[in-house]
Structures are given as structure tokens and as C-alpha cells.
Amino acid sequence: MKTLFRDLWLADGSNSPLRKCAVLIHDDRVVAVESEITRSAADKTISLGGKVLAPGFIDVHGHSDLSIWAKPEAFGKVSQGITCEIMGNCGLSAFPISSRNKEHLLELYRQYGAELNWTDFAGWRDALCERKPQIRVAALVGHNTLRAAVAGYGNELLSARQLAEMRQLLERELSAGVLGLSSGLLYVPGKFATPAEITELMHVVAKHNKIYTTHLRSEGDHLLESLDETIECAQRAGLKKLHISHFKTAGKANWGKLNAALERLEDARSAGIRITVDRYAYTESMTQLSVILPGKAGDLDDSTLARLLDSPGERYRVTQELAQSRAGDYWENVTLVSTQAAKFRADGGRTIAELAARENRTPAELVVDLLRADASGTSAAFRGMSGENMRRIIALPFCMAGSDENARPADYSIGRSHPRGFGNAARFLRIRLDENASIESAVHQMTGLAAATFELHKIGLIEPGAFADLVGFDPDTIDGTTDFAHPHTPATGILFTMLSGNFAKKVVL
Ligand SMILES: [Zn+2]
User: Fold this and answer.
1) How far is the CA of 287 from the centre of ligand 1 (A)?
2) Residue 377 Cα to ligand 1 middle (Å)
3) How many angstroms is it from 186 CA to the middle of ligand 1?
4) Ligand 1 midpoint to CA 181 (Å)
5) What is the pLDDT of residues 265-284, one digit of tens each?
6) Which of 75, 116, 151, 382 is 20 to 30 A off residue 283, Cα-Cα?
7) Cβ pair 2, 23 in contact under 8 A
8) What's residue 181's pLDDT?
9) What are the chain's domains?
10) How many Å lie between the centroid of ligand 1 and the Cα of residue 50?
11) How remote is the CA of residue 458 from the centroid of ligand 1, in Å?
12) CB-based contact 496:506 (threshold 8 Å)
């Protein structure tokens, strides 16, 4: 089957100037890109009415590792023009699995109903392939999962034997085709890792000439120290490809640190480290609500935390500590996104302050109620980023779009999303275009740059031989929802998404 796309402006992903031309695809590949191609060359002709044809967007930072197994149609991603996602981010991947981390991962992923009957990357990939996901899947191996496979979720220094075992598992997964190693040093058990441990693992990544991506130990109060730590580790390990995940300055007190952070990146780049970043196009972060717990409770994995909160004495202690650690107005900036806690299932989109008032509880008591009922599945959004800094970060020529979200269906059957789950790619483009960036440069950030950075082959560019992963969009109307009350609202301005020559979203022309 040959399909001809014509009457279009081509942003081919390479950052070369937008040009009027025609694109011919044959089955799953692009076969010709010319200023004119006769209709008789194709079985079918599609006119884009002067709109833009681009390579399918690459979401370099996603968490669909299991959600796409449960809902392979990946509607939230496909509907915003995404055709490829990199999973295994923030230190969390669905492999390697051992007896030390399986119970925890089963609990974390329980809403998806998978039995996790694999042990490694190859097993996970095969399980996904059987479900025929509607986007291309690539993955990093997560440091937290790797560490837990060897040493569980406890706060411990690893022995030389355990470190050697981690290196071996990492070697195996890098050789099997994962793109690199991700870390999430805010989370259990990654937060227990010393710089020496990270450096050891970076050595292995560097040997394979692959990439290390990191959710920094701190993105706010200790942002600069965390960047320093990461860059020093990379220098010691001889690591050349370093990527900062969802780069931000979290918390108003830290908004002024962006220039100092960018200087550090520039210094490292001139010292020979290729540093790249990704960013979602929103000023609210989202993660598990349990990350806000201070003290000992904050060092526990979700299963242990839920058991701890069953004790009235511990519950009281954790509630007191939490209340003391946060200012009263903090809770107006924390929005419940999703939970399986029976009483609160329909409350996504409401703030903790609002829910506490309704339930006649203090905010800290309400948070503890939620975590006791569903420690692993309760997620919240946190307002605290600067819009101006976000726009500056998105404008960096080495910044890519990363949704930080799971692929979701239109309904809420596997939980609610941050609006970025349905809008990030479109919103990222909108922000760039509103700042007068050229269409080709904005598209390049989301396609060719992403593919080159993560070494994804045959995608990210429209050229003969590439996969026919395409998106058609209207640059005047493309945008993504920002609505926490109705987050599963498809992006506007997307005409169609095509994966390997198959339309995923119906042509609306
Ligand atoms: Zn993260």
C-alpha cells in the first residue's frame, strides 16, 4: 500500500527550514520526499490542506511501563501526536525483577493486573509486544528497581558483592538493548545510594557509550548541590551522555537559581559532557503523595509504610511530623490527582486543603488517611514552579519534551492523569510557537533531537528509509489541556497520528 501526502508544509525533524513538498510512504516506510510526486505513484492521496507534516513526536520521559500493557491503545499519547515513548524513567523500570523487589512492584502496579512473569528487559518487552502497543516503546533500566532487585528497599550501604551484582545486571540489560540507566534519587531506595555507588554504575554505562538520565536528588532547595553531585560523578566515571529529567527550579524560594543551574550545565558541556534535559510544559509537578512525608516514614517503601500507618501510635507520630514540616498555606497548592482510597476516588482535581475542610480533618490527618488506604496509588500535583523559568527551559536548544506520564485511555479505569498525559507534546509546541520559535526548530526538539540523543534509529526524521511514524497538525490551533478537573481531554490541532504506516487517530481532513 502506497500513500501520498501532499499540499503540506514539511517539518522533517532535522531543523531544516519548513518546505512545501510531498511525502510518499510504502507500507511502514517513507520512500520519497520530493517537491512534487504525481498522484499516480500512490494507491491513496491525502491532502493536508496546507497544514504541517512532522515525524511522530517522541516522548523522552514517560512512565507507561505497565499502563501500556493494560491499555495498549495509549489514547492519551496517540491523541497528542506521540508515536514513541521512552519508559523506565526516574529510577523505576519494570525489570529486573527478583524475589527481593517483586512483591513491591506487584503492589505498585496492582491496578494494571499484570503478574510480572518476567525477570529482565527482554521478558518485559516480549510481554508488551504481545499486547500490540499503539506507540513505539523504548526503555531505560531504573536504578531503584535495579538496586531493589539486589538489596531490597531498605536504607543500607551496599556491600562490594551487592555492587558487583548490580553492575552485572546493568551489563546484561545494556547488552540486551536498553538505552541507558535512569535514576530517581528522591525515591526509596535510590535516595540511599551514595555518589560512589552512582559513579560505579556510570562506569558501566560509559563503557557501553550509553546515556545516564536522572531525577535529581533535589530539584529545589538543593538543586545546585544535586547538579554538582551528578556532574562530578559523571566526570569521575568518564560518562559522556548525561540527561537531566524534568529540569526545573521547584519552590518559589528557588526560582532565582536557574541562571546558576544553567551555568553549571554550560561548564560541564564545555568540559566535554553532552548534557541534555527534558521538560513537561506545566508548572505543577505530580508524583506519589507519600514523597512529602518527613523523617523515618519518608524512607519507607509503600508496603512497609501502609503497614506502619495501621498502628494508631505511629499514625499519630507521622501526622504530627507532617503537620510541623509544612506551612499552613502549603496545602492549597497540593491537588489530589488519583487514589484508590474508597472515600476519595471521585475527588481527583480537589486540593488537600479543600478535602480536609470537607472531611473535618486537618490536612496532615487527611494525607495520612489517604496513604493508609492507598500508599502506592495515591498521587498528587504540587504547584510551585515558575512559568517564566519553564519557558526559558523549554527554549533551550538541548531541551526535549517529556510528559512524565503514563499512557491512559480516555476513561479513568486505570487512574487519572496529570493534564500532561493528554496535552504535553501539543502544549510544548504551543509554548515554543507563542514565543516565536520556528515550527521546524520546535518540531526538531520533539523528534530529531530526541532520536539522536537517545539513539533511536529510523525515527525522528522524515526521510527515505525511516519508519512512517507521522503526525499532521495545525500550528494555529495545536495546544494541550491544562485542566486538572478534566485531565483526559485530547489535545487540539492534531489532524492524525500514524505509526508504521497505520493511522492511529482518524484523519479529520
Ligand atoms: Zn521523575
Assistant:
1) 8
2) 16
3) 8
4) 13
5) 999 999 999 999 999 999 99
6) 75
7) no
8) 98
9) 64-283+384-456 (3.20.20.140), 289-382 (no CATH)
10) 38
11) 27
12) yes
CA of 199 to the centre of ligand 1 (A): 20
CA 285 to ligand 1 center in whole angstroms: 9
Nearest Cα residue to 197 out of 175, 181, 174 = 181
∠ CA 8-10-14, rounded to 5°: 175
Amino acid (one-letter) located at 430: R
- Cα 176–182–184 angle (5° rounding)? 145
Picking from 380, 493, 382, 376, the residue whose alpha carbon sits closest to that of residue 429 is 493
* Distance from Cα 286 to the centre of ligand 1, integer Å: 9
Record the cell numbers describing residue 477, joined without a space. Answer: 490551533
**Whole-structure pTM value:** 0.94
- What's the mean pLDDT in 453-467? 98
CA distances from 329 to 64, 90, 97, 210 (A): 33, 29, 41, 43
Cell numbers given for 322 = 507532617
Rounded to the nearest whole angstrom, what is the distance from the C-alpha of residue 245 to the centroid of ligand 1? 6
Tell me the mean pLDDT in the region 53-73. 97
Determine the Cα–Cα distance for residues 211 and 180; give it in Å rounded to an integer. 5
Q: Binning pLDDT at 50, 70 and 90, where does residue 506 land?
A: low
Residue 492 DSSP label: B
Closest CA to 401 of 17, 82, 137: 82
The alpha carbon of 453 and the centre of ligand 1 are apart by a number of angstroms equal to 19
- Buried b / exposed e over 181-199, threshold 16 CB at 10 Å, is bbbbbbbbbbbbbeeebbb
DSSP string, 402-460: ---B----SSSTT----THHHHHHHHHHHHHHHTT--HHHHHHHHTHHHHHHHT-TT-S
* Partners of 5 in beta bridges: 23, 46
Burial (CB count within 10 angstroms: exposed 0-12, middle 13-18, buried 19+), residue 22: buried
Compute the distance from residue 135 Cα to the ligand 1 centre, in Å.
Answer: 21
Q: Select from 370, 301, 382, 308 the least CA-distant residue to 340.
A: 370
What separation in Å is there between the alpha carbon of 90 and the centre of ligand 1? 4
Q: Taking the mean position of all CA atoms in its chain, how far away is CA 444?
A: 18
